[in-house]
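so i finally got all the pieces together for this one. its two components total, 776 residues if u count the protein bits. some of the lines might not be protein, just check the labels. i wanna see the whole assembly predicted at once instead of chain by chain like last time, that was a mess tbh
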Amino acid sequence: MTEHERVHLQARYEHELFEHVLPFWEMHSPDPVHGGYFNNLDRDGTVYDTTKHIWLLARQVWMFSKLYRLVEQRKSWRSLATSGMTFLRNHALRPDGRVYFALARDGQPIYQQRKIFTECFYALALSEHGRATDHPAQVEEAKLMVERIWDWAYDWSKVGRPALAGTAPSQMLAVPMMLLNLLEEVMIDANCSSEINDCFKRIQLHVHGSRVFESVAPDGNRLEGPDGRLMNPGHVIEAGWFLQQAAIRAERSDMIELARNMIRNAQAFGWDEEHGGLYYFMDAEGFSPVQLEWSMKLWWPHCEALYAHLLNYALTSNPDDLAAFRKVDDYTFRHFVDTEYGEWFGYCDREGRVTHRFKGGPYKGCFHVPRALWLCWQLLSNWPARDN
Amino acid sequence: MTEHERVHLQARYEHELFEHVLPFWEMHSPDPVHGGYFNNLDRDGTVYDTTKHIWLLARQVWMFSKLYRLVEQRKSWRSLATSGMTFLRNHALRPDGRVYFALARDGQPIYQQRKIFTECFYALALSEHGRATDHPAQVEEAKLMVERIWDWAYDWSKVGRPALAGTAPSQMLAVPMMLLNLLEEVMIDANCSSEINDCFKRIQLHVHGSRVFESVAPDGNRLEGPDGRLMNPGHVIEAGWFLQQAAIRAERSDMIELARNMIRNAQAFGWDEEHGGLYYFMDAEGFSPVQLEWSMKLWWPHCEALYAHLLNYALTSNPDDLAAFRKVDDYTFRHFVDTEYGEWFGYCDREGRVTHRFKGGPYKGCFHVPRALWLCWQLLSNWPARDN
């Protein structure tokens, strides 16, 4: 990458983040009556559903706290983050440490998942908000939550999901990947090397040569059926850069190499050569995935790929990584960016046509787009000097 | 419809049912080792997942029992039905009357839904199998199941789904529609006029002018948000012909009229004028539905529409109903039928391209296609004489 290209990219990502993406959420998401945010926003920011999905609220708290702490101490970012955190603490957290998945606008509970992810995002929000606003007690509380999540992580009967006799024991990639992210974010100043090594080992179980499976047996063996053949390229790419960052901090060259290859292989395997874009789901043996949306192109795998390829390139100077970045950048900015109203569309069909006009929904909020833009912009701004 | 067209249609539906659809399931679905059926069959019948989904197993028992009782006493149909029913009785039914949603090949339980539909399909299977094979005790047992389901139907906390404070009380169209089907199928020789009237009233709550909503408040008022705006044209059309048949038996001209209009309006509202086919989900106010697959064209709404329009036409001689039938018939036979391996594809994208090559999956089995073909063939074979 020439210096000219780097400077140009840096400016483009900065502009997109600060002029087109963050203002959308700052303007349209706050709930002036009950606090917290609306996350179900139509193309132009209109609230089309007042349900508050806690994955998204917690991630938005995390995002604005992060920006406040690391980019600029804007008061409006801090108060936005605190409004969300206060709403979450008052309404989403149950006395037993579980966190609701969805709340009504006024905070009354609507739905409780029998999974651990809402709790993970709550802990991320609490930790980052505590650091950003100088409330160490919040950081400590988040650490206790991570310890509790660690205890639940591989036995979901502890969060109410009965384990029935016919279900083959399995491990989902999402779990060690999420735990690693929690350790890196929440426990960064604690000594967690054995826990981090556990995540490394468990992620490795999913890697079978050039393919990474969403679910494997607890010993890493393949599972039968569609679940055992399921691949999610965006997920592998996201796990790849989580692992890359953690492996660098842990000085684990084997894991650095593994992470790099996970990203490169998922890009090669997951890219639709005919229409462009990363598939959402794939079956490793070429059967049709049972997920109806398997061939759709979603915004978030492309967000993850932007940063993952750029990070690979920054670390290796390998032109293939730059080419992968450019390919994803080109697809992403042609298909997902909405130059008229800001933020990005989330969902395209296989051919790249936008299928859903909303900017925020039950699984899309102020998170993947600003996180990827921020990470890329930060990396481009602190680009490693070359010896040439 | 000319006599020539009727004869031609009757032969085409008969041929499709008996030569292309039923043989696919007879050949590929039986599990010779553990009994019952595989329902996850690839395009050519290859088993790509041995998980047994009980909605599909129960519906296949129902279908072959029905054919044995009403079409032809083929021994192979009877033994196929009995093999499924035996597997269900041995493995799917819990001592407390709940029925598992999915079992492993050998019958060990995998998943239990916190809904009532698996129990409904089990009762349909048991009742029809009992009638077809002359086991009145099975029919009586099915009736007791229907009474239990009736008790659970509008309070899912009784099947393990906690009702949380922020959830607006609501009623789903699926429930009274399914109950009406159970009453018509299982309780046909009992006096259930008050229960049938209850279903009529509850279905009516979902009808707001020309639109029918999937979910409404218990008093029939509109609900806020995407759930309250959600429309599923195929579902309305299916509910329409259930209601049409029940209303005719109950001699309720108001409900006959209502059913007819539900079908006609859902066809008008749900048809994609640009690419053809019925949308899967729609938002009544024109927002993007949050379901990722909303614009896909699924086989089953088209199956339901074939019979619903043909029934309307048989009852009214209205040329608009014939035109609707022809439109759906043309789309269906051009997009879903697989002339090479039998059975139909289940899933097309908005433009009508097949997106999933399998014939059976977690929600597609030996049910909608043969039921629609059988109902249409039966109707065409007993076409009402006209006075002209």
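Residues 271 and 278 of chain B are 5 Å apart (CA to CA).
Chain B has a mean pLDDT of 97.
anyway lmk what u think
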